[in-house]
Amino acid sequence: MLKKVLTNVLLLAILLVIVEVTAFCIASSNKDNWVNKQTFSQKVVENFKEYFKTPDTFEQEVEVLEHLMRKPQGENFLKRPIVITGCSIAHGVQLKDDETFGHILSVQTQRPVYNNAFWGWGLQQTLRMMQNGKFYERINGNPEYLFYVCIYNHRLRQYFYQDFFYNSRMYVRYKIGKNGDLVYVTPKNFPFVYRFYTTKLLQKFIQDKKMANKSATSRLFLKTIEAVNSDMKKHFPDCKMVVLLYSDEQKDEDNTVSPTENFFSPAEQKELSKNDILIINMEQICGKSFKNHEYHMDRYHPNAKFWGEVVPELKKQLSL
Asked: For the whole model, what pTM was predicted?
């Protein structure tokens, strides 16, 4: 009897190891390799290191990464400030400080600019930063605009458990409660379990199923945008939220301007407009596509040339 139990335990252990190795290989072969351009063997090494990392909550992460966030630009200027939020697109991953959206915007508009964007984030991180006060600690003065640089993928990131399933960074999540309000999902942090790629793969399967429900995804995304706008107005009542649309993949063969409907349906646009939220399609106001490699640092991220062409058009559009 004991021998049979031990045999079954051993077989189960072997099965779990096979499943874990398979999940690990899937993560290591992931094609979303936009920054470091690592080889497969390099990714294997990096992914293996994740086994020894303890997933941080968002609040812990912000404390650790504060020094990596962009510094304020143009604080000596007297006009009302502009605040930027979003992900790596707005943060300026791989760009020098004087090549970023924030710097170019500050110089061309003669305004202070505060960049509260960070790589890997969705809009829900902005909302969480607002709710815990960190967002406002980084702002001086009375901002006239909040610029949210939006990519379509942000609505999908609402369901992430960890930051893209190949690392152990805990992700911020909200859900719509019974009364229709946004409810913060307190992270259940199980460091030992979350380190395994089997867990990460299961989480990815669950979040992909949720993403497939486009109606629920749309409702949650609009609620999050409106919550960010509402929270900003509590602190700065006449601050205007502007959603800047960015088509986030390099396609040299595609010279067509991405229509606003690629990001928001007409019904969604109407809903945001009712809440005094302005949508600006950056390709449309410039009258050109920016999908060519000359405007990119890599497959997804814009370079200084992109911002150098967009900012003058934004300045005209909003009389900055």
From this structure: 0.90
